[in-house]
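Example 3.
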Amino acid sequence: MTLSEAKQAVVEDFSMFDEWLDKYEYLIELGKKLDVFPESSKTEDKLIKGCQSRVWLDSKEEEGKIFFKADSDAIITKGIISLLIGVYSGRSAEEIADDDFAWIEEIGLRENLSPTRSNGLASMIETIKKKADSSRNNG
Amino acid sequence: MKEWFPQLSEKVYGKPLVYLDNAATSLRPQSVIDRWTEMSVKYNSNLHRAVHYTAAKATGEYEDARKQLATFIGAKPSQIVFTSGTTASLNLLAFSFGEYCVGEGDEIIIAESEHHSDIVPWQMLCQRKKSVIKVLPVDDTGHLCIESLPSLLTEKTRIVCVAQVSNVLGIVNPISRIVDICHSKGIPVLVDGAQGIVHFPVDVSEIACDFYVFSGHKMYAAPGTGVLYASGDWLEKLPPYMGGGEMIGTVKWPGSSYAPAPHKFEAGTQNISGVPTWCPAIETVEALRARDTRMSGIRDYVLESLHAIEGLRLYGEPARPEEKIPLFSFTVEGVHHEDLALILDKMGIAVRSGQMCAEPLMDRYGVTGMLRASFAAYNTMQEAEYFIESLNKAISMLK
Ligand SMILES: Cc1ncc(COP(=O)(O)O)c(C=O)c1O
């Protein structure tokens, strides 16, 4: 799946929900299914601290692609992380750095990701972008 | 009530707003909004500085608010300093008190449950003066460990700082006993009344504390208004915090003299439109108190309902219900406070979640945050029931 296909798939999934309640239930399910992030990897340097939920983010590069792994102590945040990883993990630095992240707004989660919610998600997106930028500039 | 507090008619996500974040800031009554606008529309002028009609009117309103506040808390007008809020009052006090009588090795005692604004200014003072902070602990139920207070007091103790009611625990602290213990050793006491004053009558002469601070915006007045009360002649003794216009006697190059208290502490242009809203705010507090017998019913209902929720831990468990204001902070086992707050938000319920400006207390209880529902006199039993029902629904979604 290309990046734009992956984004399109998420937007289509979300278009099925009229109710925010269903949206949250879907995110909670995704959150519960998110790949295990080993406790031993939850180190300070990977922690994005918010007043609300905490987010841990790890990344590695293989054959020109960036892979992300992340976790949170809050389940809705974890669900959103799962979406972000599904869309961006395994992409090239160029693809990520050039993306506009507009799909987040399309699925109505902008308010969940705004810095004023003071959770780690807004910083997580910043970190993903920065990672892609620095990887592109070094590559 | 909806005519009284217009924001109660607001809708969020198409649902009626259920505002349970009153401990953070209260809603504003129409009378406060009217006075506030009136001051801007008709009487905008700087204070104390001119002989013209409007200046005299604005100054009159400002000083009337001081008189009414003094009566409200049982003080003299000259003992009331206007500030921009509790935080400003505490910073002023920590600075001036520190300059006056805190030196190297001296000790400041602070309750473990204090708001950051009653911790950080004292830490800044301690850094400047090489003095130290000692902590008065709270127990598992959220009560201050008063029995350990006498042993904390030494000849180096300069002041004891404690909230009348913690913004997390909601338990009314035994201030009179604390004051008795401290005064018997000649140690002054600062009481942070930010959460107390709106919930019950306060008479500072009866409490006999040395300093009492609170914010206007938590008791219906305009934001950016606050009070520092000081007993006896403390305000005469303490040096000013900020220098500038209006706080002076005369200004000469070799040095300046200061205006008498309280004006010595009110440098610069003051909150001209905000301060006069203290008067309708006080009237609102008093009117709500007079008619209000429902609040204890709501408190008891919420307390009982929260106790019935499996895995819920309440912080600030009262020995008797009367000991608690209608403020409830809790965590639910296996459920994150942010998730609960997000779902409740979509149900139209505004609650607070996170560390609530009391990180040391979060550490004390080993949590990263809590959820807090705090009620005001305009909240209804119906809203309390909707809150409990919604909370149960949110928990079942998340578990
Ligand atoms: C107990 C307590 N102290 C101090 C403050 C700080 O008040 P303000 O933000 O109005 O300065 C608050 C408000 O959150 C509080 O609840």
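Residues 6-26+293-398 of chain B form a domain with the Aspartate Aminotransferase, domain 1 fold (CATH 3.90.1150.10). DSSP finds 13 helices and 17 strands in chain B.
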